[in-house]
Design a protein that fits this description.
The protein contains 11 helices and 8 strands. By secondary structure, the protein is of the alpha/beta class. The chain binds phosphoenolpyruvate (PEP). Phosphoenolpyruvate binds next to strand 8.
């Protein structure tokens, strides 16, 4: 039985004032939620401040990116996984489509970051997903399989016991267009079947989140699909009531 996991990706949003309001709201509602793991992923610069505002003991902190280099060094503007860990991060979002498309991160760079995170004991939330063109031209499954394979080739299937996968169709991220529960389920089942070819036990255990315009009004139906184990939430994670309603939809 997989425990659902909901993570909030704040992207490059927030200020000390808005984070205090948001986290105060999360703290107040956290005791209403059970049966789901929860994380919030603030911008790197606000991780420490967010931790100080957070009193809920069932909400964990994650980062949104790390350097490929495992150690500190002359890498201007970068933050290492050890630095995030030092600030209390247990998770890190890797391979988000915004990093892939805007910053040109390749499958092999993402695989390296997954390896570095795992070595440090920080759980990667590995984002994979197709564009609308890829879906419409019938190459969706091969795109997703290639994104997975790039990481599997570097860390191996056994490591996926400690990797969270976030299936995020790029056409559904921040657009208000959600994949239908059936569309999402179909891809989640495909991802699990790809892993099962290598190790059925790992495939059965791996948490696969859905991400892409999840809101309180569509979360219940999405999360009731058999292979959807919670969500990676962008816009709706910036509102305490919405985010907690989504967490509640994933829980018991
Ligand atoms: C995301 O950024 O990972 C995401 C899913 O965003 P949104 O929920 O806003 O679509």
């Amino acid at each position: 039985m997989r425990k659902p996991f909901v993570a909030g990706n704040w992207k490059m949003h927030g200020s000390k004032a808005s984070i205090l309001t948001l986290v105060t709201g999360l703290n107040a509602k956290s005791s209403e939620i059970s049966g789901v793991d929860i994380a919030i992923c603030p911008p790197t610069i606000y991780i420490d401040y967010t931790s100080h505002c957070l009193s809920a003991d069932n909400i964990f902190i994650g980062g949104q990116n790390i350097a490929e280099e495992p150690d500190q060094g002359a890498f201007t503007g970068e933050s290492s996984v050890e630095m995030l860990k030092d600030l209390g991060c247990q998770y890190v979002v890797l391979g988000h489509s915004e990093r892939r498309t805007i910053y040109g991160e390749s499958d092999s760079q993402i695989a390296q970051k997954v390896k570095v995170a795992m070595k440090a004991g920080v759980t990667p939330i590995l984002c994979i997903g197709e564009t609308l063109e890829e879906r419409q031209s019938g190459v969706m499954e091969s795109v997703i399989a290639a994104q997975l394979k790039a990481v599997l080739d570097v860390v191996g299937i056994a490591a996926f016991e400690s990797v969270v996968i976030a299936y995020e169709p790029i056409w559904a991220i921040g657009t208000g267009v959600t994949a239908s529960p059936a569309q999402a389920q179909e891809v989640h089942a495909f991802i699990r079947s790809e892993l099962a070819v290598l190790d059925s036990t790992v495939a059965e255990k791996v948490i696969i989140q859905y991400g892409g315009s999840v809101k309180p009004n569509n979360a219940v139906e999405l999360f009731s699909q058999p292979d959807i184990d919670g969500g990676l939430i962008g816009g709706a994670s910036l509102d305490a009531n919405d985010f907690m309603a989504i967490c509640k939809a994933a829980g018991v």
